[in-house]
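Incident review: delayed structure delivery

Summary: a single-chain prediction request sat in the queue longer than the usual turnaround. Root cause was a stuck worker, restarted by the on-call engineer. No data loss occurred. The affected request and its eventual output are reproduced below so the record is complete for anyone auditing the incident later.

Affected input:
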Amino acid sequence: MKITAIHFSQLENLINNQIDTLSGQLSEYFSRYQRNTGDWQKRFRWDLLYSIPYLERAAWFDEVYKYANDDHIDTALRKITKEYFDA
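Output delivered after worker restart:
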């Protein structure tokens, strides 16, 4: 994973805070995404990231895109959200 430990930690905090915000809706989201074809888990990860308010995620993206790309971000997202898909 190319994302630095600091940026990974920041992303993990952003995602976990958003999951806490959406906690009552996660089961609805999972069932909606599972009905879709293709890689619904990847779609869920990225939709979750983009559901974080812009001002909270913009600075993080600005720094990370200086050295990483979407593949690296997806690897980090996969690691952060793994527990939700392994249940």
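Verification: The chain has one domain: 5-18+25-85.
Action items: add queue-age alerting; document worker restart procedure.
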